Amino acid sequence: MSFSKTLTHWYSINKRQLPWRQTTNPYYIWLSEIILQQTQIKQGLPYYEDFVTTFPTVFHLAKANEAEVLKLWQGLGYYSRARNLHAAAKYVVDELQGVFPTNYKDLLKLKGVGDYTASAIASICYNEVAAVVDGNVYRVLSRYFGIYTPINSSKGAKEFKTLAQELIDVKDPATFNQAVMEFGAIQCKPKSPDCTICPFNNSCYAYSNAVIGELPVKIKAAKVSKKYFNFLVFLTPNQTTVLEQRQGKGIWQNLYQFPLIESEKGLTHRQLQKELETLDVLKGKNFEVSLYNKDEIVHKLSHQHLYTQFWIIEVDFNIEGAISVSEVEDFPVPILIGNFIENFNF
Questions:
Q1: For the HhH-GPD domain, which residue ranges apply (predicted)?
Q2: CATH topology of domain 225-344
Q3: By C-alpha distance, which of 66, 121, 59, 114 is closest to 89?
Q4: CATH topology of domain 3-214
């Protein structure tokens, strides 16, 4: 039996029942693929269901304001996905009259859609012979065929894409693509896969040569940087606090946060006091400072680790532009801020 036939046979028996597998509507397929980028299904599924309920069509999503989209996305991380999702919905509605592109090449024109997502939508919705290559596919192919080319190199990207395109079932590309992704997700797992029940254990290079843990090969990423964040949580006599919207480019672009002081290392109470005395809003005013979290909260991102302290600033005056503490939960915030708000319980 060929590789593709063995794979699709396994899929017919072992596939999970997921809502986006019950449709070929490109809006729902696109939505699921964007949500599941960098996200496991068990985490992404509730978000998918919330988005489908809140925005049942691309017209509803396009009509929403960005804050609504970011709020619904809160907790998923990689917020550029949400901003791109919203921008692409507007493009489909405003430029394409609500009709999604019907081929791989035109799907690539949607903001936030790359090779993998375009291939998935084109094959599942339009039966186009476009092979998907994601982390699961890299792992399956590198292990089965014994490929040591780094998956995060330009050479590796081309090599694995070419191989996947050669293997895909031209008569049923949708099933093949979903099968190879599912196989990598639940059978050929990153760590400690159960190869004794694998349908490929008689022909898999990695299993035969006991190198499962060595494949796929990945070039080591650059050293993760450290940043020290000091969030200022103001509390006023009329039960208000201050939130600011992050401007410019960045992972938290357009999300809200408490006023922030960045430092080269964690600040002591005395050091923060000196910083606060230079702020216009506090100059010549009475205020009390207390540290909310004794130990720094370490928030780990792919490229940096944030060492975070939340400082409670109690003042005896009202602050212009402050918001009621009862409204804090209505704003889209990074999960780091969201966790604090939930635990602090204004």
A1: 35-186
A2: Nucleoside Triphosphate Pyrophosphohydrolase (3.90.79)
A3: 59
A4: Endonuclease III; domain 1 (1.10.340)
